[in-house]
Amino acid sequence: MISLIVPHMPFEESDKALEELLSSVVGVDEKLIIVNDGIGYAKAVNIGFKLARGDYFIVSNNDCKLIDGTLRSLPDELGVSVPLITPEARDNNPRCFFCLPRWVYEKVGGFDEDFEGGYWEDDDFINRLNENRIPISLNHRIEVEHLNGGGLTMKKIGEQEHFDKNKEIYDKKWS
Predict the structure, then answer these.
(1) Would you state the pLDDT for residue 74?
(2) Per DSSP, which regions of 78-159 are E strands?
C-alpha cells in the first residue's frame, strides 16, 4: 500500500496547485492532505507519517505535479527514491517529492520539528539518511514538475526569514 502525504497551506494559488497535483497522481492507495496552518512543513509531514497506513510513503509539496509515469513505480524497498524533477532539481536528494519505505521512517524518524516554516529540514533529513547508510536512488521512469520552480508556500509566508533562521539551526546541529 502506498500513502501520499501532502502538507498544504491553504490560499488561492496553493489550492489550485494542490488540485493539479491530486488530479495528476496515479497509483496511490491513500491520500493524506495535512493542513499546514502555521505548524510548519516538518510537523505537517510528521503528522502524515503517523497517520499513513501504507508500506511506502510518498511525500510531495503541494506545488508538484506528476507529468510522466505512475507512482506505483516509485517505491524502492532498499531505501529512498526520488523521481526526475523539472525544472531540474539542484540535486537528486529527497526534497520536494520522494518516496520511502515505512522501515526507513521507523529507523530514521521523521523531520526535525525544530525547523520552523520550511527550509533546511530536508538537508537535516538527508544527513540522517546518510548517517544510517540508507541509499537514495533516482527513478528515471517517473517525472514530476515542481510548478513555477517551487517555493509557492514559502514565498507566501516569508521565505528569507525562515531560510536564515533554519540555516542557523542546521549549522548548530551539523557543524
Answers:
(1) 96
(2) 80-86, 97-101, 136-146
